[in-house]
Amino acid sequence: MNETQTLPASLPLFPLAGCILLPGELLPLNVFEPRYLNMVDDARREGGHIGIIQPQSGDAAAPAPGQPALQRVGTAGRIKSFVETRDGRYLLTLAGVSRFALNAEAQAARPYRVGRVDYSGFAQDLAPRPALQGDRSRLIRLLGVWLAGENIQLDWSGLEHMPFEALVDRIAMLAPLPPQTRQDLLEASGSAARAVMIEALVAGLIAARAGGRPQ
Where do the H-state alpha helices sit in 8-162? Predict the structure, then answer.
């Protein structure tokens, strides 16, 4: 089945602060709130797609009390694996398919939020990621220095032989970055732009901590 043809124009939304999903990447989820359990049940019956999107930092434009305004761009993920635990939680893995622009929220009689979305600005997401050339060793070295200074241990196993473009996107999803920085990485044109952004950001953080210049 052609993934392009199955992407829904109305998408159940799972707002998660500090979390992005990039096309071609996987996102594990532990779902336990009743409204989101209901969302997963509906998604599994209706094509298997869920929209991962971040709330905005402020909620002055919230559509309703208790509902923070959402970022303008998120990612549609397809349910790749599903397990129900004995205590009623759902353990999911979403596979990122395509980013979307959130045009509006639908007035749906459901306990979760539903968005009217547009994928047309992200046609490249449905193509294989182009191979990325870059200084892989420098990026890894900078990350190691930065994370060591933050007392964060990174398990490099499994990353050593990963294609550079996949490594960059994985870093964008997993590195301990502020929500808006993560959103900027999501909205970047592709892995090459993300690599430039990540290297500049990490080098700047190292320099700021050391009171000197980026290495």
Answer: 34-45, 136-149
Instruction: Give me the residues paired with residue 53 across strands.
Output: 15
Structural contact between residues 145 and 215, judged by C-beta atoms closer than 8 angstroms? yes
CA distances from 206 to 146, 147, 192 (A): 6, 9, 21
**Range among 61-65, 132-136, 156-160 with highest mean pLDDT value:** 132-136
Q: What is the pTM of this model?
A: 0.89
User: Please, are residues 73 and 187 in contact by the beta-carbon 8 Å criterion?
Assistant: yes
C-alpha–C-alpha distance, residues 102 and 169, integer Å? 22
DSSP state of 87: T
* Token pair 């004995």: residue: 86
Sign of the Cα pseudo-torsion (148, 204, 26, 37, in order): positive
**Which residues make beta-bridge pairs with 79?**
94
Continuous H helices in 24-163: 34-45, 136-149
Q: Tell me, rounded to whole angstroms, the distance of Cα 1 from its chain centroid.
A: 24
Whether residue 38 contacts residue 74, with contact meaning beta carbons closer than 8 Å, is answered with no
Count other C-beta atoms under 10 Å from residue 66's C-beta: 6
